[in-house]
Amino acid sequence: LRSMPNWARGNVNVEHEVCVCMTLTNIMPINAKKPTSHANARYNRDLRGDTIPLDIDELIILGCRSGTLIFLDTMNECQVAHVMQAHQTQVSQVHYRHLRQELFTLGEGGPEGSTIIRVWRFPALQCICEVKGMARVSPQDIYPSSFAISEYLPFFAAGCTDGDVRIFVVAPPVRGTNDI
After folding, report:
1. Does the model's pTM come out above 0.85?
2. For 113, phi and psi rounded to 5 degrees?
C-alpha cells in the first residue's frame, strides 16, 4: 500500500498489512474518512476518459492477516478511505452482495483459532449475522471453513470442517431492526 495522508491513518498501520483477499463495492461506509477537496481532489475522469459524477463510489476492500478490512477509494487515487477490525486474526475470504448491500467475511477468531463467518450491512457496517460453532453431528467441533453467497437470494452456504455444507438465510430487517 502506498503511503497515506494523515486523515486516513486511524489506529491501524496499513503500510505493514499483508492482504490475502479482496472484493469490490460501490458504497462508501458511513464513517469513512474523506479527504478535503484541498488535500486531495477526486479525479474527474476514469481511465477511458469518461466523466465521473462526484457522488459515485468505487472501493476495493482488502482482507488482511491481522483481521482488518481496508477500504481503498479507487476514485481518489486508491487512498485508504476506511479501516475496520472484522476478525481477531486473518480475514481469509471477503465477498460483497451488491443487491442486498451486505459484506461477508470469513476469518479466524473463534475458540482455539476456529473460523467465523460474519455478515455486515452497508453503509453502517453493522454486523447482522455471525456463524461460528454449529450443532454437532459428530464428536468433533464443527466450524465453517469456506462459504459462497447468492447475489439474488438471501441465502449463503458454508462449507464446514466436518465435510458438510450448511445453508443459512440472512433475513431482511423487520420493523426498523436488523435482527436475523
Report:
1. no
2. 75, 15
